[in-house]
Design brief:
This protein is of the alpha+beta class. The protein folds into three domains: about 80 residues, Helix Hairpins (Orthogonal Bundle); about 110 residues, Sandwich (Immunoglobulin-like); about 110 residues, Cytochrome Bc1 Complex, Chain D, domain 2 (Orthogonal Bundle), CATH 1.10.760.10. α1 packs antiparallel against α2 and α4 crosses α7. About 30% of the residues are buried.
Length: about 350
């Protein structure tokens, strides 16, 4: 459905927009129909069954009187069915939005009072701007440095909470070249209203030209590798597995056994927690010797370390698909560590 002639609706510019708009139109139509129907019935009955004289006494209904079981069932079943359609339709859209495609382009986002900081895997970085190619699945992995924010793009009909200490994901496929507004939809402080930005949807050639013109030195994984060396992580996490801590080569996306017998998936959330809170979960066979790096590395740097660990992890498509970056369902808390320490 195209709402361009109704200025109260934003432009439709993503794969989700038609589905959200159709559901919204259904909700509005059903609500308007029954609101008008009930109002009309009230007015008609108010005149038809009004008291015509002071001595008039209403006739009571008895157990054999004018009650209608069919009428009772009808006005109960019809609203139930309409509500179930709303629920089922909304659930399908929700589950679709909750499952990013395996071929999606990954982009990292950090919310901070009061700006959006964005990193592309190729190394390009942006503030309050996001450049993406048209007709390409985009997966954003989001977190916050301070309070809860909300990444909201009205033209895409997508909105996701950005939570400190946790990774959430949002995906979409832009369908129109153009510029679209980005908002924070969660009150996050005195300058909340200024936490806005612009998403630039470009054709493939223009996007490639933009990406190569930024003068970026090194990809995220390369920056993560340099940081890995700088922090001394390589001292304990040796590639041959002979260090005091688990090796990270081939780790990402695999199951990690912890002390006590529990297992977790070595995804982005697991690695992040291992960096900032390494003693929460200890890998089986290792001691809890890793220091915390909380406050020593920024969220941007943690993301770079994660990309480095991913780059030396399993290369198979199955492993990559099984290690989606930190959705609410696979946020086991983590144990592996790309910094120095006791866990993988």
């Amino acid at each position: 459905m195209d709402w361009k002639y109704l200025p109260i609706f934003p432009e439709s510019a993503s794969n989700f927009s038609p589905h959200i708009d159709a559901l919204y139109a259904y909700l509005v139509t059903v609500s308007a129909f029954f609101s008008i129907l009930i109002a009309v019935v009230i007015v008609v009955f108010a005149f038809k069954y009004r008291r015509k004289s002071d001595s008039e006494i209403p006739v009571p209904l008895n157990e054999h009187g004018a009650g209608s079981m069919l009428l009772e069932i009808t006005w109960s079943v019809i609203p139930l069915l309409l509500s179930l359609v709303m629920f089922g339709w909304g659930a399908m859209i929700f589950f679709d939005e909750s499952k990013p495609p395996a071929d999606a382009m990954d982009i990292w986002v950090v919310g901070k009072q009061w700006m959006w900081k964005i990193q592309h895997l190729e190394g390009a970085r942006e503030i309050n701007e996001l450049h993406i190619p048209v007709n390409r699945n985009i997966r954003l992995t989001l977190t916050s440095e301070d309070v809860i924010h909300d990444f909201y793009v009205p033209a895409f009909r997508t909105k996701t909470d950005v939570v400190p200490g946790k990774y959430t994901t949002e995906w979409f496929r832009p369908t129109k070249v153009g510029e679209y507004h980005l908002f924070c939809a969660e009150y996050c402080g005195t300058k909340h209203s200024g936490m806005i930005g612009t998403i630039y949807v470009m054709n493939a050639n223009d996007y490639d030209a933009w990406l190569s013109s930024g003068g970026t030195v090194g990809s995220m994984s390369e920056k993560g590798e340099a940081l890995f060396q700088q922090l001394g992580c390589v001292t304990c996490h040796q590639s041959d597995g002979k260090g005091r801590c688990p090796k990270l080569v081939g780790l990402y996306g695999t199951n990690v056994e912890l002390k006590g017998g529990a297992t977790v998936v070595a995804d982005a959330s697991y690695i992040r927690e291992s960096i900032v809170n390494p003693l929460t979960k200890i890998v089986n066979g290792y001691d809890g010797i890793m220091p915390t790096f909380q406050g020593l590395v920024t969220e941007d740097q943690i993301q770079q370390l994660i990309e480095y660990v991913k780059s030396i992890g399993p290369k198979s498509a199955a492993a990559a698909a099984g290690a989606q970056a930190g959705t609410p369902k696979n946020n086991p808390g983590a144990a592996a560590n790309p910094a120095r320490g006791t866990r993988p």
